Amino acid sequence: MKRSDKVIISCAITGSIHTPSMSPYLPVAAEDIAVQAIGAAQAGAAILHLHAREQGTGRPTQAIDEYARFLPVIRDGCDAIINITTGAGLGMSMDQRLAAANHFRPEIASMNMGSFNFNISGAARRGNFQHDWELPYLEMTKDFILSNTFAQIERAMTELGAHGTRFEFECYDTGHLYNLAHFADRELVKPPFFVQAIFGILGGIGAEPENLMSMKATADRLFGADYYLSILAAGRHQIPFTTLGAILGSHVRVGLEDNLFLTKGELAPSNAALVEKSRRILTELGLAIATPDEARQMLGTKGRANVGF
Predict the structure, then answer these.
(1) For helices 94-104 and 64-77, what crossing angle results, to 10°?
(2) Maximum Cα–Cα distance for the chain, whole Å?
(3) Are 157 and 177 in contact (CB under 8 A)?
(4) Is 258 helix (H, G, I), strand (E, B) or coil?
(5) Residues of the chain with pLDDT under 70
(6) Can you give the residue ranges of every domain in the chain?
(7) What torsion do the CA atoms of 15, 230, 213, 14 make, to the nearest 10 degrees?
(8) In whole angstroms, what separates CA 127 from the centre of its chain?
(9) What is the DSSP letter of 252?
(10) Which residues in 55-210 belong to E strands, given as ranges?
């Protein structure tokens, strides 16, 4: 693992897992996504991981016109690195998933490194849904595979790589690290690799500290000093896991995509609040926080002047 004296904080602003009824603070309107993204950057996030939502319903979408509502606002309001999802909303086609990243050509795009069962149906227990799409969207994941085959990954790497976009390699299990090593061996992607190890999604690796240590050891064996490790964990595991990862030398990802709570029983009032909490903990541990330009240098991105928005 590449060592750095600065920690990169990524913030995942809205995602496609949580539905609008789960928290009044989850940004789903374009103007709210923009305001919260800029706020997270001001709080210390060097990377903003972005999804779009349909106006009015809050349903996940990859429509170019929805991204166009907030991307220029965020660009003009802060200097953070923009990371556009290719995981998108659950059940979308590959054409839909790649549309926004291909059109806007961001510095970074997310890249799920394999197919796996992805079950968020447990969230249906919350009840009292505002929109008729929410409950079926959650319940269908009992019989859902989040697809990213080798052919799909190769297509995405080739198309987005042609724009100079680099990747956040999202690894939900140990096998996904080996998948990345396969593409690295074929030189479809080049180091430094930004590996996002993900814990606590039902269908992926569980949120136990031993699993974090195992994922890190495997990545160290496969990539040596050619990668940066970042950690995210779902729900209540978010802050403990990112803190453990940072102590071990990793970077961190927080945000309302992955976790709605600031503390037990208390909803986070904003993405900035989660960034501020993480930054405070990391600073008290003696760790310095990377600026967007320092993150650009570490990850080798093409720079904010070379995007398509």
Answers:
(1) 40
(2) 49
(3) no
(4) coil
(5) none
(6) 6-306
(7) -10
(8) 26
(9) E
(10) 60-61, 81-84, 108-112, 116-117, 145-146, 166-171, 193-199
Q: Quick check: 153 and 43 in contact, CB under 8 A?
A: no
| Contact by Cβ (8 Å): 11, 49 | yes
Structure tokens at 123: 């969230």
Question: Looking at domain 6-306, what is its CATH homologous superfamily?
Answer: Aldolase class I (3.20.20.70)
8 A C-beta contact, residue 85 and residue 53: no
Q: Give 68's contacts (C-beta < 8 A, 6+ positions apart).
A: 309
What kind and span of H or E run contains 49?
A: strand 47-50
Question: pLDDT, tens digit, for every residue of 21-65?
Answer: 999 999 999 999 999 999 999 999 999 999 999 999 999 999 999
What's the residue count for the chain?
309
Q: Would you say 235 and 200 are in contact if contact means Cβ atoms under 8 Å apart?
A: yes
pLDDT in tens, 276-290: 999 999 999 999 999
pLDDT of residue 99: 97
HSE-up (13 A, CA, CB side) for residue 71: 27
Distance CA 256, CA 48 (A): 12
Partners of residue 109 on adjacent β-strands: 84, 167
Beta carbons of 105 and 164 less than 8 angstroms apart: yes
Q: Which residues contact 125 (CB under 8 A, 6 or more apart)?
A: none
Task: Name which of 108, 255, 259, 115 is nearest 194 in CA terms.
Answer: 108
CA distance 235 to 287: 24
- What is the predicted pLDDT for the residue at 101? 98
Neighbours of 185 (CB within 10 A): 9
What CA–CA distance (Å, rounded) separates 162 from 271? 32
